[in-house]
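notes to self, project folder thing:

trying the whole complex as one job this time. last attempt i did each chain seperately and stitching them together was a nightmare. two parts in total, labels are on each line so i dont mix them up again. if this works i'll redo the older ones the same way
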Amino acid sequence: MSVDLLNFIETVLNGLMSGVMYSLVALGFVLIFKASGVFNFAQGVFALFAALTLVGYQTGQVPFAHLINELFGTNYHNWYASMPNFLAIILTMITMIALAWIIERLVLKHLVNQDPIILFMATIGLAFVLEGVGDLMWGSDVKVLDVGIPSGGSTWLEEATIGLAAEGSDYYGMYIDVLNVWATVIAVILVITLALFSQYTKTGRALRAVADDHQAALSVGISLRTIWILVWAISGFIAMVAGIMWGTESGVQFSLSLIALKALPVLILGGFTSIPGAIIGGLLIGVGEKLAEIYIGGYFETGALENWFAYVMALVFLLFRPQGLFGDKIIERV
Amino acid sequence: MLYKETGQYKSSYKSDHAIFPLIQDKIAFSTLMFIAFLIVPFIINSYWEKAILVPFLIFSLAAIGLNILTGYCGQVSLGTGGFMAVGAFSTYKIMTYFPDLNIMIIVLISGLITAAVGILFGLPSLRIKGFYLAVATLASQFFLVWLFNKVPWFYNYSDTGQITVSERLMFGIPVTGATAPPYATYLFCLILVVLLGFAAKNLIRSKMGRSWMAIRDMDIAAEIIGVPPLKTKLSAFAISSFYIGVAGALYFAVFLGAIEVTESFDIMTISFPVLFMIIIGGLGSMLGSFLGAAFIVTLPIGLKFIMVDLVGLSAVTAKHFEITIWGLLMIIFLIVEPHGLARLWSIAKEKLRRWPFPY
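result (full assembly):
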């Protein structure tokens, strides 16, 4: 095989893997949008908040430490030195479920039947609140998150592919981050679990019923509020997984919440209402972005296409399918 | 009692269609204009100019622009920051190529350039609707900011990527640059806001404005009764972008003086706050644009005052508190009054009509 072809394959593989990361965030969006019609801009901040909380539990930080210290002149920092990973993760999950409950009680309950744009703005407000509270609770410094997922280049793949190139070419083998492989595996498990859950459990069926038709679901005795809490909790859980993945890769800091902006083009590409759409959209965007960076980016001396390329790509798709690739067909009546 | 319309008869269509049909409104507006033009310029100082009045005026313009598009024509846009950047950079480039041109003309031409860009980015709206469009407008935000950040021609190949305004005079008084006195920048913005505000109010009451609202309320029905969607949507994008472009030009030339595009026109610093202004002020309301802008401009100042000066927190913690309270207020506001401050004002007017009697 020629080096060009191998490089191409490597780019596509890396693109697919980063696409999985986008899909993880987009999945949370889709679940909430389907079940409650809310375009949840706070999904990215969810991920940040979950990651911050996880690190906080792991290292035993005292919540609101520097606020208390500033107000009362005390000097609290840590309760304990460390906590086992699985315990910290479980505690974070409980926190995210509690958060979903609070959001339903304090925000969503009061905004039923409002315009979609009002709900959207409310989630932007929610994003601000969570960001502020996260910073106040755990501090705004960049934190290292390590839950024991291996990372770094895969030497096995590098050695396996180095021989594929033609004799005499200086090819070093493919580079793929092990972390991304893990992310893919976890995402696949997550999606399969979700699919099984919504297909074979009673709650899962109720969830799909609500997504299909709120009124009909209400009339057969499904509690909308329970389902909403459930859906927001699941999204919180997905956000936690995304937060762990992105946080391990680049540290837990404010910019983590910006992955929401990365997930938006995935959403419009795949369609707001389709879970397969979120996954395939994520993969397409991931591959497209990486390919563009390498094959088109070279023609612009300026580079750094990744901020907008995904959006333009999604836009081009939208011109042909205004509801996204897998979105519900838009039927309009007068 | 204070605010009754009884006895104010209209004998012609002209008086019936006046912008301020009631004598009380006329008096209130004239008083406001009197204070704004003849009293404030004499007592304004640099703090009031830089912190409150000029940003309020500039963001009012941006809010009017976005309200035309989102409130009146129903097309949600998150690309305000990008369009303001177009206005700012057009001003900068025109200033470098035509050093003798009057600043007022430069600002208006920048608005026109932004309008052209707005039409271009408005094209997808013909096919995409709702949140899909909102996300698609983010494309313009990211693309435009990237363009101004990465193509050196736009910032004249300066090393820092910053653009800096040079001094320009109006009637012999500098209105841009470091030496501009507070009253000059204030009056310059005020004149533009008043003129463009009246223009917008009248546009909305014209055939064009009515077709925007028809498209907003139900686009298919509007199309069937003969409102052309292409022309209507693109005209809304063009005029909205014109206002936002002028606001961007003022933001750069008069208010900040020197900007760096990724910081000054970020989605979090411009696009969302302006969207929130029109929602908190009232979608589809001119008064709402001003009230929303006033609210959003003064809120952080008030919060900061309370946090840092009264409670005594450090600046960083105060900032986090500010973000939290800011978000909480947004949510509370949306829950309590989703139709915005303009709606509160109309309720107050109802009350004033009967006051002090219960009915």
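what i see at first glance: The longest strand of chain B covers residues 163-164.
need to look closer tmrw
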